[in-house]
Amino acid sequence: MEGVNIKTKLTIFGIICLICIFASLSSISASVDISANVELLDEDDPSKGAIVTDIPKGDAVNHLSVKNGDLLTSKSKAVYIKTGLRQKLSLRAMAKNYEGKNIKVTSAVWTFSDGSKARGLSTSKTFRKTGWYTVKMRINATGPGSYWGDNPSDNWTWIDSTKTFKIHVVNKADLKATKIMRSPASKDNTVVFRIIIKNYGMSDSKATQIRLGFADKKLSRFSQTVSVKPIKGVVYKKVVSKGKTITKPVVKSTRVDIQFKVPVKHQNKIKHLRIDPQNRLSESIKSNNLRIFR
After folding, report:
1. Residue 252: strand pairing partners
2. What is the per-residue pLDDT for 44?
3. Are residues 53 and 163 in the same domain?
4. 191 lies in the same domain as 158
5. Domain total for the chain?
6. Residue 233, CB-side half-sphere exposure with 13 Å CA sphere
7. Which pLDDT belongs to residue 271?
8. How far, in Å, are 67, 114, 127, 174, 272 from residue 293 at the CA level?
9. I want to staple 231 with a disulfide (CB 3.0 to 4.6 A). Which of 138, 153, 196, 199 is the partner?
10. Do the beta carbons of residue 127 and residue 169 sit within 8 Å?
């Protein structure tokens, strides 16, 4: 650059410096935007989101709601799920708190040990073989926490947390009261409850009992326990529907009539119905044995 004077050289140098400074500022701005406006994390494509905060182990973030299954605790105090063969297990991701503050679950990914996968706050699964399985629940959630950005309202935390649960699938009976009908009180203060009990398990049930009870201990003398005969398990039959042959479950049931002789003023104080009150029946799901009257 021999033909260029010193003033021109300084001007060119200054322009280059300004370009470098603007490039640097653009880079800083982009990184701030990413952390202050985080999108939902896509575990298959990390570029679609960013993890701002990882939850340490032991924090009360992952909570699970289970339908058609029991949440149990093993001898080693590990929480696991128990459900029945060919029964539709429903799972829902919930969050209680993070560092003592409420948080909101925004997305969840479920990965089962048989290779199947689902997205959404809730999912369902039907197992066609007995045995032990696992489900990995990965949640994204937001809540009050670390400070990000220049605006005080941006005081929130992005949470990415994973927890794995074991699932025990068994082939046993599963009794459930599906219909409860009550007759009007007669003149002699007799109230009749007609209850339909169904077996949703694939195994036959044994004879058991059913009990209707009162919340008030003073009325416990009116409670009654009656016998329930064995109910056969679910039978699968092939039927033709819309030109296609499908396998359809046939659920077996039995009817139980319980007759109470109670004062009319107490007829609405019956609180609960319990199948197998002595807990002697072996079932795939026990939590649906209790029905509470509201």
Report:
1. 199
2. 35
3. yes
4. no
5. 2
6. 17
7. 85
8. 19, 39, 32, 21, 6
9. 199
10. yes
For the ranges 76-90, 115-129, 144-158, which has the lowest average pLDDT? 144-158
Q: Taking the mean position of all CA atoms in its chain, how far away is CA 276?
A: 26
Confidence tier at 141 by pLDDT (50, 70, 90): confident
Please tell me the distance from the alpha carbon of residue 167 to that of residue 116, in angstroms, as a whole number.
Answer: 14
CATH code at position 278? 2.60.40
Give the model's pLDDT for residue 39: 28
Q: Which domain holds residue 232?
A: 175-292
Residue type, 150: D
Positive or negative CA dihedral for 44, 46, 52, 58? Answer: positive
Higher pLDDT residue, 144 or 3?
A: 144
Q: Which of 139, 170, 201 lies at the terminal end of a domain, its last residue?
A: 170
Residue 56 and residue 163 in one domain: yes
Q: Report pLDDT digits (tens) over 93-127.
A: 876 665 666 677 888 999 999 999 999 999 999 99
For residues 112 and 205, what is the distance between their CA atoms, to the nearest angstrom? 30
Residues 151 and 251 in one domain: no
Of the residues 140, 170, 200, the one at which a domain ends: 170
Q: What is the mean pLDDT of the chain?
A: 74
* Residue 241 shares a structural domain with residue 226: yes
Secondary element (H or E) of residue 33: helix 6-36
Beta carbons within 10 angstroms of residue 27's beta carbon: 10
pLDDT at 171: 96
Structural domain contains residue 16: no
Return the SS3 of 215: coil
Q: Which residues of 179-194 are buried (b: 16+ CB within 10 A; e: fewer)?
A: eeebeebeeeeebebe
Question: Three-state DSSP class for 15?
Answer: helix
Two structure tokens written together for 89: 């297990």
65 within domain boundaries = yes
